Amino acid sequence: MSQTIPVKKNDYIDVEFVDLTHEGQGVAKIDGFPVFVPGGLPGESAQIKILNVKKNYGYGKLIEIKEKSPYRVEIPKEDMHKYGGCQLHHMSYEGQLQFKQNLVEQTLTRIGKLQDVNIHPIIGMEQPFHYRNKAQVPVGERNGRLITGFYKPRTHEIIDTDESVIHMEAINDAIKIVKEICSELGVTAYNEEAHTGVLRHIMARFGRKTDELMIVLITRTEKLPHREEIVGKIVAALPNVKSIVHNVNPKRTNVILGEKTQVLWGQDVIYDYIGNVKFAISPRSFYQVNPVQTQVLYDKALAYTGLTGEEIVIDAYCGIGTISLFLAQQAKKVYGVEVVSDAINDAKKNADLNGITNVEFTVGEAETVIPNWAKEGIHADVIVVDPPRKGCDAALLKTIIEMKPKRVVYVSCNPATLARDLGILEADDYQTVEVQPVDMFPMTMHVECVSQIVLK
Ligand SMILES: C[S@@+](CC[C@H](N)C(=O)[O-])C[C@H]1O[C@@H](n2cnc3c(N)ncnc32)[C@H](O)[C@@H]1O
């Protein structure tokens, strides 16, 4: 039976917001029909104007808030440019944490139907601003000068700003200085429509523990004009810089990095630590962007493994081996598996860098490699999984259930797939005991959870 649509374009309606979308838009339900409204917060009532109506949902514009959420914060218009990528900028940090906590609790009990699980209060940051150790900003041109910033949502129009409330100050400063140096020397900005011009993006990465800075200049052209002068001026202006890299991306694409990378000055990597494990970070390496909360998350994961030094551990979806290397110090042996071969190369290099020898890394799909390990007689006492948003493959969950490790530690960036997968494990011999939400990405909609699941 098809549902009648209760609203039409240009209607003015009074609504209550009941939820937020993944993009941070308020969700109002009109006779069950969802309407997405940027700026609306759960618990608020408001008048909205319907802008667009589709078969199953609509879009609206906030006209007037009639009852405000206690968590609403007003960002002065002149400061809005600092909040690029911050879907929750209009919510206090306390409100953000409350929202994420509710999201995790409701999802796990509604979808996963979990009972008897201890969901701890979310661990937020003391300083929820300036936490990101990496930025890659698009470069444009205005009034004959280079500008950098972030794209206006759903466009490629650059909002001109040198400040971001989520980038580390060292990153904001570095990008501003590099942009000004290139601008002074007359380097042109890439023009996406015409596919002309030179400088496409500036990337900066910063090692929080080491203070080492990497600058990557991404150009359309093979040649970087005024290369020597640019390098000299960056080195003089940024004493922490340890690596300056040129990357060439000649393609018409939204992908930021091209295939060709050349070191212009200094090292090809910078270093940083998570706990006492040292990591080499190249322009392409995946490395957690919030180092403070990564440590919190991994400490919790380590505690949930209950390692004594005698266990065989499998780290599925291991990336560059961050969790594997962290756990290897307390385990007999760790096997890591990851589908991206570059990441496995980084993982092996990082093991060598730290003199960690009780780890073995394999390229492949976790759902294929781990069943093969089982056939070869590798039995894990503990399995750690840290899958992408879509969660664990069903074949992997089946193998876990068959292998019967004493503990499973599940690190998840998506409560919905976490709930689904915990439900599958619970339908068998496993019980979820603890779930710890961690706020890795303040000001955004994302929430990370680490869960401890034990064999009954
Ligand atoms: C959320 S990341 C976790 C990375 C790592 N544990 C860390 O903390 O740095 C998920 C990883 O799973 C990898 N991946 C995706 N599908 C996979 C599969 N079927 N088998 C193995 N790895 C996979 C991705 O390449 C990515 O590195």
From TrEMBL:
GO terms for molecular function: 4 iron, 4 sulfur cluster binding; rRNA (uridine-C5-)-methyltransferase activity. Residues 6-64 form the TRAM domain. S-adenosyl-L-methionine binds at residues 288, 317, 338, 386. Its EC number is 2.1.1.189. Keywords: 4Fe-4S, Iron, Iron-sulfur, Metal-binding, Methyltransferase, S-adenosyl-L-methionine, Transferase. GO terms for biological process: rRNA base methylation. It is an enzyme of class 2 (transferase). The keyword Plastid does not apply. The active site is at 413 (nucleophile), 413. Belongs to the class I-like SAM-binding methyltransferase superfamily. RNA M5U methyltransferase family. NCBIfam families: rumA (TIGR00479). This is 23S rRNA (Uracil-C(5))-methyltransferase RlmCD. It comes from Caldibacillus thermoamylovorans. The gene is rlmCD.
